[in-house]
Structure formats: structure tokens, C-alpha cells
Write a structure and sequence with these properties.
Blueprint (H helix, E strand, L loop, with lengths): L6 H27 L1 E5 L5 E6 L4 E6 L8 H31 L9
Helix pairs in contact: 1-2
Protein name: YbaB/EbfC DNA-binding family protein
Organism: Actinoplanes teichomyceticus
Length: about 110
């Protein structure tokens, strides 16, 4: 028994795929380019991270000689943790902005 092929449905599916593929490329580019800056709880360390989670800069404010190494390590760990959370937050925001207008594929 031969099945009927719905050419219009196939064309729509191809168009949806191309749109999703284009949005994905836009998302990947935005995630790599978007940067977020976070600070340690004592404001002595600043980390700049992309939405992809790549650390692109670390700035230490103030001298290092007078710092307690244990406290410095604690502050560094806290700011890196914050950077990870900030990158996740930025990715989610970008995802909502880029894919938010995409309509559900249900019913197609």
C-alpha cells in the first residue's frame, strides 16, 4: 500500500529545521561573545567570564604580599563559583531571547 507524501509538510519541516539551525548558530555566537563580570565577596578579585563559561580575565585588586593565603584561596574559590553561576544565568537569558520566539512544533 503506497503512502501519500505531503510535500507541503516536508517543505515546512525543512524550513523549521533551517530556522532552528540558524537560531542555534546565532545562540552559539552570542554565548561566546557575551561577557559577565563578577567579584569575590570582599571585592578583591574580579573574574570576567563568557556565557560559554570561559574565564577571559582575572583581576586582583590590592597587593598580594599582605594577604593570608587561606583567605585568598577562599575568595578565589567563591568568585570562580560565582562566575560559573553567572555564565549559566547569561546562557539562560540569551537562550530565552534567541529561542523565545520559536513556536512549538506540536501539531505539525
Amino acid at each position: 500500500m503506497a503512502r501519500e507524501i505531503d510535500e507541503a509538510w516536508i517543505d515546512e519541516a525543512i524550513d523549521r529545521y533551517k530556522r532552528i539551525d540558524g537560531l542555534r548558530a546565532e545562540f552559539d555566537q552570542a554565548v561566546a561573545a557575551h561577557q559577565v563580570s563578577v567579584h569575590s565577596p570582599d571585592q578583591s578579585i574580579e573574574v570576567v567570564v563568557t556565557a560559554a563559561g570561559d574565564i577571559v580575565d582575572v583581576r586582583v585588586h590590592g597587593g598580594l604580599r599582605q594577604r593570608d593565603t587561606v583567605e585568598f584561596s577562599r575568595q578565589l574559590k567563591a568568585v570562580v563559583t560565582s562566575a560559573t553561576e553567572a555564565a549559566r544565568w547569561a546562557r539562560e537569558k540569551l537562550h530565552a531571547e534567541i529561542f523565545g520566539s520559536l513556536h512549538s512544533l506540536e501539531g505539525h
